[in-house]
Amino acid sequence: MNKLKYIIGGILLLLAAGCEKDTEPTNFAPKLSTGEASEIYRVGATLSGSVQKSEGILVKECGILYSTIQSMAEYEEVKIAAEEAASFTVSLQNLTPGTTYYYCTYASSGRSIAKGEVKTFTTIANSAPLFNSLVLEAVDEQSITLSTTLKDEGGSEITVRGFCWKLSESDDEKEPTIADNMANVPLEQLVFTSKIKGLEPLKTYLVRAYAVNSIGVGYGETMTVQTKAATIPILAAITEVNSTPLSVTVESSVVSNGEMPIQEKGFCWSTENEEPTTAHIKKVVEGDDETFSLLIDELKPVTTYYIRAYATNALGTGYSETFTYETPLNFPDLDVTTVTEVKPTTAKAASVVISENGSEVTEKGFCLSKTVEEPTIENSKIVVPGTTAAYSVVLTNLESGTTYYIRSYATNSKGTGYGEVAEFTTAVDIGETIVSDITDTDTSASAEILTTSDHLAITEKGFCYSSANAVPTVPIQRRFLLSREMILQQI
């Protein structure tokens, strides 16, 4: 009896405990929404979803689950950051063509997982090629440079690909097709790029990528591009190619002709204006090459020159940035030496110091040699005193019938400058002419060649005479020639 009492009492205690009020759970599942699939192609699709959570709801991860099994007993997951869970899209890739997939939004607290509505999509078995985004690489007055990549070749070999374009003439313009203009691109390039040329300045064009496979023609997104307006030419900065103390060779190039023919190009310079124009000193460079150069010479020493390249089209003249060239102090410049009054043993030489080039001349004269064709002061020099620019000297003690090389020189603090080399040959030395056996109609004459030098071969010898000129010469008076063996001629 006592045992029964104990059993009944235990049951009552259990019933009392079961009648206590339930406590509310501290975490509720978030509200999940599964969006429709979009951008479905052979091996991919774009899926969307949203996770709405209120205060106190814990979401550690969320995203999309997808599977080829309708029950989704096995699945793949695409995670997104929990803080981006409000609304999101994911791109699925590497799917199987022509296959049905099931997917849903999910959220997990770490202990449990909640799933949204399960939806479905089917990848395409085969299709025309698909493209990723079109990128505008460059645009100028007459060309557009574009690039893109293939998103999917469509399941069969691509035979042709490239870009197609057309001029936009209205707001409701149809998209360009291969029936319009095309620029093909080699099939080997993973990222293919093309520069579409021959466009008009300041015009709007519609352009998109295309590719052809066995299914058909696939097109990328259409881009609207406006070419730049025609302008005056644009030139590159000048570079120095070569220089001497009083000359410089400069080079530039036409970066853009402004989409109009170049009518003239060259260089202009000034010693006063830091931005010279063609109104200053200029020199035209002929030819159609984009890169062109010019030797600017006969510069003044210790002078700053401002130089700019220029090019002109129908709209005007464009200039490069200013290039500055400073000529240094230099040795003197001299004129060519002139030689006159050449006799068997003497001659007169003259020259001029054209410029001292910023430093006073301390010595000047001539260099003379029988063997050195460009004599210097190290060979032989004849100093001429005085301070005048023009100077001369009588050369003495020369050898008759001999060739000499001579040039002027002048020295200043920077060094010695030389004029151009002159060459002269002294006259043959002939002894006194002896006339004998004079009659009414003839006479005898004789003379001796005194020159013993081997430098000059005698090519002609004889006598010249005149009844009117007291000093007859060969060009205008009558003459008789002698052979090399003869020293006497009857006349």
UniProtKB/TrEMBL annotation:
CDD domains: FN3 (cd00063). Keywords: Repeat. It comes from the Bacteria. SUPFAM superfamilies: Fibronectin type III. InterPro entries: FN3_dom, FN3_sf, Ig-like_fold, Striated_Muscle_Regulatory. PROSITE patterns: FN3, PROKAR_LIPOPROTEIN. This is Fibronectin type-III domain-containing protein. It comes from Bacteroides stercorirosoris.
